[in-house]
Amino acid sequence: MIVRWVRAHAAELGKFGTVGIAGVFVNLGVFNLLRLGPLSPDSTVWGGTDRVLTAKIIATVVSIIFAWAAHRSWTFRGRATTRPVRELFVFGAVNVVAIAAEVGVLAISHYVLDFTSLLADNIATVIGIGLGTVLRYMGYKALVFTRAPDAS
Hints:
mainly alpha
């Protein structure tokens, strides 16, 4: 049953995965640029305080904007609605849930388990991205790109 479902949705899942992988690179790239730059503990921009969660939220928002554009124009092109403002709003709401999951994983790792190295932060980020990806796909299919695919 699951194998049949995956086969029936293989093209869409492939596109979703491709956009997702690109989004991971965007997310990790922005996160690391911020963590090693203006939001690093050594930076004087924020008074030398650790802003790991701020960096994570900014990186995730940038990757969400990238993903919406890519999914709307490629992955779910046949399902994109004629109401892009509503679509973007619901897309954002689905991503708020996913961001909470991603940031939650990082917060538990960084602040509860005290794994504060850059490597540990990146491992927690990748785990959070995985959880967020599952939530996003389910939310996009159920709530955002709901119109039946075009026959073309």
